[in-house]
Design goal:
mainly beta, about 15% strand, about 45 residues
Amino acid sequence: MIESGLAAGERVIVDGIDKVRPGMKVKAVDVRVAKPASAPVVASAGA
């Protein structure tokens, strides 16, 4: 779980990280994940 270090609108890879290589282009896809009661969470696939 990412709790800090990201600014609004930044994206992270949430699936297939083992296939990503430096300089590789990825397709960003918005993904909704379950929110813990204490903090809102929206994750995005892609970088």
